[in-house]
Amino acid sequence: MERGLENVSIRRSQRAKHVRLVIKPAGIELVVPPHVNEAQAMGFLHQHREWAERKLTEIQGRADNDHRSTPVQPLESGSMLPFQGRDVPLIVGQHAGNRLKIKKLSDGPFEVLLPETSDLSTDLKIRSALFLWVKQWMRAEVHRLAQHHGQVLGLLPREIRIKRMQTRWGSCGPRNDINLNWLLAFTPPSVLEYVVVHELCHIRHRNHSRDYWDLVSRHLPNWSQERRWLKAHGGELLRRFS
Hints:
Strand order of the largest sheet: 4-5-7-6
CATH architecture of the largest domain: 2-Layer Sandwich
Number of helices: 6
Number of strands: 10
CATH superfamily of the largest domain: Metalloproteases ("zincins"), catalytic domain
Distance between the termini: 27 Å
Radius of gyration: 20 Å
Order of helices and strands: EEEHHEEEEHEEEHHH
CATH topology of the largest domain: Zincin-like
Number of domains: 2
């Protein structure tokens, strides 16, 4: 994807009289009136791209500072994790081995076993173990979704990566590599599916044009409600696990 376009969404507005850029923490919105075609709109974007990127960096920096100033609830025995959108308890104990162990019991809690020499309140170790478990689980789940939708769409990524991402839920690189935020494991399954389809569609359309959203809608007609879920609850997830 061309530099500077990965955070850009395009919105056609019947009320707009001029092309304008709206900068929000989630990205850059290009508002386009009916009489302006896509080539003209993209020309406007390129002309003001450096300013937009600079403002986006400033806004996201302020959002990061706000996140850091919010107390983060430690992960400990009895904590509830919203795995796939359903509250799942976290059980922390100890065992005689030297390594931390974590597993997800079928339809049950996450179970973390720390070495006997560890402090039961070692929040950082628990978070690291949870990330590694989720990364493995998500890789398999996302490959399944990518195969299902990618074959239908005729769009398959070169590689899928599960990463810690501070402000974004996913991205599609210039070589068709898809990156996904590990916290999508804590959203409802339909939200994870939406983000996967969202990024798959970027393999064909490197923007958020009408053609792009038509392609998304062809496979997920109700995608807008999943997007609304992320806007309503995503910030809380980012703050809790940042």
